[in-house]
Design a protein that fits this description.
elongated; Arc Repressor Mutant, subunit A; single chain; 11 helices; Tetracycline Repressor, domain 2
Length: about 190
């Protein structure tokens, strides 16, 4: 690995943790540089400012998520299970996305990938008759994300009440809720 790439990678990794914990406003460049074993000067050689570094981490998180979680038109409810799994396996990414929403910051996907691919998969599932076609894909996709992330976004009382329930049961309930939402109207 090229030393410059190694430093950049260390900075991005340290920044992911810092931003997930403190958000853009609360993150400190000196803590990121120290965690990355890099000087602040090296950090600024790679990223113009803290906002640019936040954006780079956010874009990398989005790319990682979209590469890891596919939406198969033949089993849209499985997408909810995959999003559930990803949210629980990578809570730092979900926290980063939450901070970005709070700050009103959008993310970009590399290589021209777009959420439109997931919307197209929903349309295809509707065309094939696998799911209810009365929803617009633009309405349905955020609902599916909401169902998938319900357990990680729930108020604390829900976490306390659900603490004795295995994670697999929460996942199963999210997938079943999605199946019911997706069911074709009679």
């Amino acid at each position: 690995m090229h030393p410059t790439t190694d430093v950049r990678s260390r900075i991005l990794l340290a920044a992911r943790s810092e931003f997930a914990t403190y958000g853009l406003a609360g993150a400190r460049i000196d803590r990121i540089a120290k965690a990355a074993s890099a000087s602040k000067e090296r950090l600024y050689a790679h990223f113009a400012d803290k906002a640019a570094l936040f954006q780079a981490v956010l874009d990398a998180n989005a790319a990682e998520f979209h590469a890891a979680v596919a939406l198969d038109p033949a089993d849209v409810a499985a997408f909810v299970g995959a999003v559930f799994d990803h949210a629980h396996e990578h809570p730092d990414i979900l926290r980063m996305l939450t901070w970005a929403r709070l700050e009103g910051i959008d993310y970009d996907l590399p290589g021209g990938a777009e959420p439109d691919a997931k919307l197209a998969a929903v349309r295809r599932a509707q065309d094939l008759g696998h799911i209810d076609a009365s929803w617009t894909p633009e309405e349905l996709l955020p609902i599916l994300f909401g169902i998938a992330q319900a357990w990680v976004q729930a108020p604390l009382v829900a976490h306390r009440n659900a603490a004795r329930t295995p994670l697999s049961a929460h996942r199963a309930s999210a997938v079943e809720a999605a199946r019911r939402v997706l069911a074709r109207s009679a």
